[in-house]
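#onboarding

Welcome to the new folks! Below is a worked example of what a typical request in this channel looks like: someone posts a single protein sequence, and someone else replies with the predicted structure as tokens. Don't worry about understanding the tokens yet, we'll cover that in week two.

Example request:
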Amino acid sequence: MSRENNSKETPIQDNKEYKNLARNTFYSFLMNYGSHFFTLIISFLLARLITDINWQFLILALSYMAIITIVTSLLPPGQDYALNYYIPRYLALNQKSKIKSLIKNALIIKILFLIPVFIVSIIFFYVFADFFAINLETKVILLYLLSPDIIINGITKILDAINRGFSRFKFLFILLLVKNTFHITPLFLYYFFEIDITVEIIALIYMFSYLIPFVLNLIFILRKIHKIESIEDEKESLKEGFNKAIKYGSYIGFSNIIERLWKEAQFQGIGFFESSGAVTGYNIAWNYKDIGAYSVHSFNLPLLTSFTSLNTKENYYQIRRIFKVSYKITLFLLLLISGFLFFSVDFLIDFVFLETRLVYSSYLKLMVIATVFKILDKFVQNLLNANNKVKVAFLLKMLDMSYFVPLFFIGLIYFGVEGAIIFGLIIGFFISTIIQIISAHKFGNVKLNIRTIIFQYLTFFIPLVITIIFEYLIFKELSFRIIEGFGLSLFKNFDFLSISTFLILFILMNLILKTVTSVDIEVFASLLNKDRSIDRIVIKALNVLKKFTRKQ
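Example response:
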């Protein structure tokens, strides 16, 4: 009997790797949504501490730093993804000594590349100061203050990849808490005691908050690899480590770099074509749409780790099964969250960013719509990368960019930021979804049920359109009057009637179309460990959700 047939006889809930996937995904959820929660707190404080123009300077300076760190990702390209691939693989084969050599080589190679880049960047800032002053005006000094991020960010990516390879997602979550504690506390003190703060001080606080967890992360990794016993026959040279990173990680690295450069190009393009402040609005919208997108991103790296391990053991049936279940449940959660976010836009802007920034409301709503279509590409990418079909994943990314870029800038130039989001993101992501469905079947041997996918999207868009009509005709004004009647003026933009209506209609549509069943949720819940208190909370939440679904 083949290995694949054996895997069919193993219930998914009894598979150790899926238990590991569930645990990693849970902490990945905590990291992603926790990160966004902290981002909202930081945004709340910045909105009250500095002006829009100074905020824009900070965003643009960070964008320049991001572009440089993207360049460092090429040195060598995709090294962190190679670690994500090889560490679980070596663990599955019980070749721990190879892991030690792999990690040591990765750190040495990265440092050898980062130091020259850092020095060249400082020289570049000085020589071309006038060029940077076009966007940063008198705040070019921000580039020098933020420059240590080049080294810290570059090495942190390697350290985080090592932790993910060992399934240390819980430790990464703790580091997130440490980082944001050191980031938020100083800002809060300035706000609470009403002390004037400059954007330069904010940049220093930002750097310090990244430095502390970086040091802790580095100490942990060095201690961990020190405990691994070296076996002479399993040692790898620096050249072998470099070649491995290039062979596997280059295509993934270039794909990641293209996506990150594309994000920064959007900010720089809006800063060039639009009036002052538009970058701030787009940045708010970009961060807001991530609240829903994190339900997808939380599966991203845990899936890569688990798919790689299962692929090494040739458990292809289990890979296909978890792909379909995870995608269906994740899309369900994304659509549910996105509907809530769509009708919460005005409240969040007013509460976090101040009422004057309600002019950016349309940006946020359009971004939420765009996000519901950007989900399948992450699943397909991880499936292909785990199968070592990295070249195919790269070509798919290049295909996406061939229409993303022209659509975005056509929309931006002729219709402004709203046009850029509609053409470049909503239409672009929709086209990408169709391509990913075909690619999952052709290259990943996973055939998705197109009818179910269409029905899932209908459970979102039909309630959305109906609720928008009622919101325009009655809900917006009625919610405002009710809230004002209770003297809760702070919540005057919280349209609870529209939110409630959407959620009810969404649940009803799911019951009618049976897109996600109670069986799907039971399978997903079975991956969790009932002996863990946190997992028990998630299981209870899933049991509540199951009440709003139908049986198979």
